[in-house]
C-alpha cells in the first residue's frame, strides 16, 4: 500500500515574485513577463510547475480572496457579483520513498 506525504501552500498571484519572473522569462520570453496582467494565471503556473519538478502532485486547489496575518485564508461570496481570487490554497502529495 502506498504511503504519501502532503504539502499545503497558499500561493498569491504576484507577477513580481522571483519564481514567477524566472519561470515566465525562461519558458516564454521576457516580453511576455513585462506584458502580464497583475494577477495573470501564469503566476500560479510557475509555482505549480516548481512543485511538480520536486515530485509533488496537485490534488486540490481552492481560490481565496485573502490570507490573514495568522495564516488563515478567506473567501467572500457576495450575491450577484463575481468573486475574484488572487490567492490559491493548494494541496500536493508525493509518494514516500519514491
Summary?
29% of the residues lie in helices and 31% in strands. With 98 residues, the protein is α+β, with helices and mostly antiparallel strands.
Radius of gyration: 15 Å
Number of discrete domains: 1
Strand content: 25-35%
Report the count of strand segments: 5
Number of helices: 3
Order of H and E elements = EHHHEEEE
Structural class: alpha+beta
The helicity comes to: 25-40%
Shape annotation: flat
List the SSEs and their pairings:
Blueprint: E1 4-12, H1 18-27, H2 30-35, H3 42-53, E2 57-64, E3 66-67, E4 73-74, E5 87-95
Antiparallel strand pairs: 1-5, 2-5, 3-4
Helix pairs in contact: 1-3
What are the defining features of this structure?
three-stranded antiparallel β-sheet, two-stranded antiparallel sheet, 98 residues, alpha+beta
Structural overview:
The structure is a single chain. With 98 residues, the protein is α+β, with helices and mostly antiparallel strands. It has one domain. The chain contains three helices and five strands, in the order βαααββββ. The protein has a three-stranded antiparallel beta sheet, with helices on one face. Strands 3-4 form a two-stranded antiparallel ribbon. Strand 3 (66-67) and strand 4 form a beta hairpin. Helix 1 packs across helix 3. The longest helix has 12 residues, at 42-53. It is flat. The mean pLDDT is 88.
